[in-house]
Amino acid sequence: MSVDTDSEAREQLIDLAAQFYDQFADGDVPSMEVPTRTKSNIEYDAEKKVWVYGDRTSTRSANSVRGAQKLLKAIYTIDFLAQQLDEDRSSTLRELYYLSESWDLDEAQFSSQDESNDLVEDLEIVSGATREDFHMRPEESGATIMGPLKLREQTRRGEREIHCQEDVGEGGYQIPNNPDTIDFLDNDADFVLAVETGGMRDRLVENGFDEDYNALIVHLKGQPARATRRITKRLHDELDLPVAVFTDGDPWSYRIYGSVAYGSIKSAHLSEYLATPAAQFVGIRPQDIVEYDLPTDPLSDSDVNALESELEDPRYQTEFWEEQIELQLDIEKKSEQQSLASRGLDFVTDTYLPERLTEMGVL
User: Fold this and answer.
1) Which of 53, 76, 97, 98 is catalytic?
2) Could you point out which of 77, 91, 108, 161 has its C-alpha 20 to 30 Å from the C-alpha of 71?
3) Residues 188 and 306 in one domain
4) How many domains does the structure of the chain reveal?
């Protein structure tokens, strides 16, 4: 999905702008066609096991004031991104929103960051490049990796090689905005463990789980950023490492797993670039809540609604998920990762994870 060089990304943007010019020259009303970005036009591809856009499209056309303004904003944004690539600079999505206030036409300015974010996604879809190729980045996610992996990354001072255990502190290696700039040099890892919460990530590192089990611990930091999902996919695809996802035991955390494994509705155009369908769910499972008598909180009404929605979600229509979700609705309880500490601080690394990962065939 990602283009190879900045010049290619710039060329794709310029080609897009040139299409508008050609439409003018031919006497046609300028327009841009993109997939309809509504939930009803998102389909689950059972073969690829990811979310993709359906066949319906929307046309951004200058035959109305509203449509003309959208195209105007697209042209200004393309011009800015092309210049940014020329100068080898980068900016955040937030900065793009504020930057538009300096543009000479009021009609080209964005009314909200959601509007500028959506336009960048439109440009990704139409150009075939990614926002990372445009040097656009979100606000820092802070997600990290800890484990037996040596890599090479680009810095302002040139390339440097880093070992994600030996050359980092307890915080681990911070995942860059564009993980495709990283080269994997060597690793002694047996699997990737993607962990939702910072507290559990710190517990695993303090207990030496990464060293004892040759694990690459990826901190998802809640709902994972695109960069986190991308590097997880690369670790799986390029290093042939199994991926296991370890979250809290509630419906919102199951969706975190779903975004890693199957992609998200919002980034359906990038599912094959970001999603890792082979990723497995470790827990916390509702079955764990019962089996280990974990401390719990009651399900809220929104929790119940989310679980019932997941039963209708094609991603969770498997025997495992249907059993677990129905059990959770029956016991009416949810539990956090850190609730495993009720059985001792070492229980998660000495017993829970080794047993579960062995059952799953990861260990």
Assistant:
1) 98
2) 91
3) yes
4) 2
